């Protein structure tokens, strides 16, 4: 029968509270599909399908052609050319937000990628209205991996203690078991297990750095940290075998008391009181700006027409030929002499032109192109963006001079390519060799007098992609 007494009802209610704890107040992840819905910072509109045999459809398309609902190629953002950082700086906060949300353009000057310095500083100062940043989420994931390694090292240490205890008693053999599991009797395996545990302990201990060095707020001590700290304290009882645990009768004999069978009791923990967090709002000046590479800035200024570039904050906007001349000059380090840059005698072998052609090629195909210097490549290709998934392809831009008479191709050592494929295969990226067929100076001569201008110059470059995959003899036999 069910217990209908008030004490029984209270116990059932308390047990229900314990068995169904309150849901954790984990902040919801932002809806990135809505935030980054626009692939480019240009207003787009969808036209209805064209049906040739339907005259109304033809009239609709004609009306959209003559009176478009939005006007494209309007300058919306202003950048400042910086010869020191060799980039174009965007300092308007709204422009920084738009360019990142609409195509993931640029990089924060004080952040890894997304400009989050202001939010990190506000959270460090105690602002309660700011959510977690990408750097903090990355740090939390790394802390979780450290805890997993520490837990694995603890379990392996326990298994090693069991093996050593069994060997000390002379019970180990090739067919013996311990707790239903076969015991490893090979001394080499025991030594390897000890080395692995020591390596894990050194890895975990050496990777823990203070928050003052990383510049991130110090997280509160978690429950896993408490358990691990208690386990690491010297305690002789934890290393004893199961049969060495003193019974209640022996404990009573040692203390001189009479042991009585204890009644089964249910320990019900009272629900912890909720901590009240006082809302706090902090106002801080944003000291971070967005840095655009030359390829990104030129694509926004030339292909999309939404960016104007100035040489200084109070200067007038630069013309497109002047921007091209600046980027051609500062594309190499140290910068080329100003007298060596001539648009009438354009050098198609300039590094900026080669890299921009590859950048324009992949951006036009819908890829989000970011710098790949972290993985020893030129570009990383994201399918949707860095907040959705990791980059799928790593691109190496290689110039090809098949149309140049008397010029041989630049040769690379095999270990250079092997090191790149090794690095990118470890992070599950496919290396793509983008061969850019460079035209000769005669092919682009007089381009400024033609109607298509730069469009005709870029059309003379040809791109061939070759995907590489690391070949491992022991795995790729078929």
From TrEMBL:
It is an enzyme of class 4 (lyase). Residues 131-181, 205-274 are annotated as: Disordered. Keywords: Endonuclease, Hydrolase, Lyase, Nuclease, tRNA processing. Residues 136-170 have a biased composition (Basic and acidic residues). One of its GO terms (molecular function) is tRNA-intron lyase activity. Residues 251-267 have a biased composition (Low complexity). Residues 171-180 have a biased composition (Polar residues). SUPFAM superfamilies: tRNA-intron endonuclease catalytic domain-like. One of its GO terms (cellular component) is tRNA-intron endonuclease complex. Gene3D superfamilies: 3.40.1350.10. The active site is at 382, 390, 429. One of its GO terms (biological process) is tRNA-type intron splice site recognition and cleavage. Its EC number is 4.6.1.16. Residues 352-437 form the tRNA intron endonuclease catalytic domain. Belongs to the tRNA-intron endonuclease family. Constitutes one of the two catalytic subunit of the tRNA-splicing endonuclease complex, a complex responsible for identification and cleavage of the splice sites in pre-tRNA. It cleaves pre-tRNA at the 5'- and 3'-splice sites to release the intron. The products are an intron and two tRNA half-molecules bearing 2',3'-cyclic phosphate and 5'-OH termini. There are no conserved sequences at the splice sites, but the intron is invariably located at the same site in the gene, placing the splice sites an invariant distance from the constant structural features of the tRNA body. This is tRNA-splicing endonuclease subunit Sen2. It comes from Drechslerella dactyloides.
């Amino acid at each position: 029968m069910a217990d209908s007494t008030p004490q029984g009802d209270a116990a059932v209610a308390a047990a229900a509270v314990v068995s169904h704890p309150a849901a954790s107040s984990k902040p919801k992840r932002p809806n990135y599909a809505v935030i980054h819905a626009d692939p480019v910072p240009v207003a787009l509109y969808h036209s209805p399908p064209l049906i040739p045999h339907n005259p109304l459809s033809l009239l609709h398309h004609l009306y959209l052609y003559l009176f478009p609902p939005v006007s494209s190629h309007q300058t919306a953002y202003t950048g400042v050319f910086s010869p020191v950082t060799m980039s174009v700086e965007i300092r308007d906060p709204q422009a920084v937000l738009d360019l990142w949300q609409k195509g993931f353009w640029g990089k924060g000057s004080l952040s890894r990628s997304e400009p989050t310095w202001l939010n990190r500083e506000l959270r460090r100062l105690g602002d309660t209205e700011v959510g977690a940043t990408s750097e903090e989420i990355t740090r939390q994931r790394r802390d979780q991996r450290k805890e997993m390694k520490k837990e694995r090292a603890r379990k392996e240490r326990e298994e090693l203690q069991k093996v050593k205890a069994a060997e000390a008693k002379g019970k180990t053999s090739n067919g013996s078991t311990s707790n239903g599991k076969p015991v490893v009797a090979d001394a080499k395996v025991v030594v390897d297990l000890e080395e692995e545990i020591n390596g894990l302990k050194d890895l975990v201990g050496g990777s823990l750095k203070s928050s003052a060095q990383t510049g991130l707020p110090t997280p509160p001590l978690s429950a896993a940290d408490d358990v691990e700290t208690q386990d690491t304290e010297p305690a002789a009882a934890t290393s004893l075998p199961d049969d060495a645990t003193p019974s209640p009768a022996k404990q009573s004999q040692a203390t001189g008391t009479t042991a009585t069978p204890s009644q089964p009791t249910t320990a019900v923990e009272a629900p912890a009181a909720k901590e009240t967090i006082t809302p706090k709002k902090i106002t801080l000046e944003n000291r971070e700006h967005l840095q655009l590479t030359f390829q990104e800035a030129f694509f926004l200024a030339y292909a999309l027409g939404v960016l104007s570039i100035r040489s200084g904050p109070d200067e007038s906007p630069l013309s497109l030929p002047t921007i091209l001349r600046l980027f051609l000059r500062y594309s190499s380090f140290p910068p080329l002499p100003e007298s060596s840059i001539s648009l009438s005698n354009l050098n198609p072998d300039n590094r900026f032109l080669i890299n921009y052609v590859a950048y324009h090629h992949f951006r036009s195909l819908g890829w989000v192109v970011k710098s790949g210097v972290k993985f020893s490549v030129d570009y990383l290709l994201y399918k949707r963006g860095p907040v959705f998934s990791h980059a799928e392809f790593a691109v190496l831009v290689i110039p090809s001079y098949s149309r140049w008479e008397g010029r041989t191709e630049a040769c690379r050592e095999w270990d250079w390519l092997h090191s790149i494929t090794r690095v990118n295969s470890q992070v599950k990226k496919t290396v793509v060799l983008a061969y850019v067929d460079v035209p000769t100076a005669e092919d682009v001569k007089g381009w400024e007098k033609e109607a298509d201008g730069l469009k005709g110059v870029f059309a003379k470059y040809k791109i061939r992609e070759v995907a590489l995959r690391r070949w491992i003899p022991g795995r790729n036999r078929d």
